[in-house]
Design goal:
alpha+beta, Aldehyde Oxidoreductase, domain 3, 6 helices
């Protein structure tokens, strides 16, 4: 019939759209610009929602390797990867963990951003804000190319239908066109790139043995006896005269150091005006003291000459110093003679 698909042709169903709180998944599906992946410069980057990237047991003697590959270049969000893993594991889980191995190959590296609008309850309009704003991190996504592997399933030979059914359930959860590939263990080994490891053989080189040549040994020289040495007789030693010991007084004078001269204390400097006044007052006193001494010396030299009379008294009164002190109190009244009384 014309409506039926031809044999060998695969039918790709459009996956259902799953709405989220913010922007829808189809807004992030297209690959645009450089990937935003530098988390050290991104504040508040979320963690991936994929719970386990490897599940089941590591089957050693598995029979088949099933892969789910992408046919488009697109971005798959981390919640879509987690949904596909849960759907596939739900079918493989009854086999038992040692009998299968499920692995999520694509890792969500790209950080998705959104410029959230302000919408409050009862508001009649939205505040759209700035156009083409940078936005804040809201999720993660994995970039896949055409032929990139998204999921891998390893099962035994008897469990091949279960493995295909698991990938069929997982492909519905993804937003890209996919294809299921099947490869046996031997085919996988053949398809794996062969790595040649060259091992260099160690070549042992024989080291030449060192040759030792013995030098000729010279004959020892004849030993001759040493000639006798004449030893001179020692000169006679004369006895030295005993030295005279110093007396006790000399020892004391030699031991005690000479006393340093004692300097008189210096008088304190006085003001100039005060010193001049004292010098002026001391001059007449010094003259008065010197004159009696000179007269006494003259009398001793010539005792016959005597100064008598009123002239000597006048000279004494002239040379005597005048006192500046005033008499204290009132002068005493002179006593009257009885001849003066009436």
């Amino acid at each position: 019939m014309p409506g039926e698909p031809k044999e060998g042709r695969q039918i790709f169903l459009k996956p259902p759209i799953i709405e989220d709180d913010g922007l829808k998944g189809r807004n992030y599906r297209e690959v645009k610009g450089m990937p935003y992946v530098r988390r050290e410069y991104i504040a508040g980057a979320p963690q991936p929602r994929v719970a386990r990237f490897s599940q089941g047991g590591l089957v050693e003697n598995y029979g088949y390797l099933l892969t789910l590959k992408s046919k488009d270049r697109a971005q798959i969000r981390h919640n879509a990867l987690e949904s596909a893993r849960v759907a596939a594991n739900k079918i493989l889980e009854p086999l038992g963990e040692p009998n299968y191995h499920l692995r999520v190959v694509s890792y969500p590296h790209v950080v998705l951003r959104e410029n959230k609008m302000v919408a409050t309850a009862g508001a009649d309009r939205l505040s759209e804000g700035m156009r083409r704003a940078f936005g804040k991190p809201v999720g993660l996504a994995a970039r896949v190319e055409n032929g990139s592997t998204i999921l891998e399933v390893r099962v035994r030979d008897t469990d091949l239908p279960k493995g295909r059914a698991a990938l069929e359930a997982a492909r519905i959860k993804l937003p890209v066109r996919t294809i299921i590939g099947t490869a046996s263990r031997e085919e996988e080994r053949k398809a794996a790139p062969k790595v040649k490891i060259e091992v260099k053989e160690k070549v042992s080189v024989a080291k030449p043995e060192p040759t030792v040549t013995e030098a000729p040994v010279a004959a020892p020289a004849p030993v001759t006896a040493p000639a006798p040495v004449a030893v001179a007789a020692p000169a006679p030693v004369e006895a030295a005269a005993p030295a005279e010991l110093p007396s006790a007084a000399e020892q004391l004078t030699a031991e005690t150091p000479a006393a340093a001269p004692i300097e008189a204390p210096k008088a304190k400097a006085k003001p100039r005006a005060r010193a001049m006044k004292k010098a002026a007052a001391a001059k007449p006193r010094a003259r008065a003291k010197e004159k009696p001494k000179a007269e006494a010396k003259a009398q001793e030299a010539s005792p016959e000459i005597k100064v008598e009379g009123k002239a000597a008294e006048d000279e004494k009164s002239a040379t005597a110093p005048r006192s500046r002190a005033k008499p204290r109190g009132k002068p005493k009244a002179k006593a009257r003679k009885p001849s003066d009384q009436k």
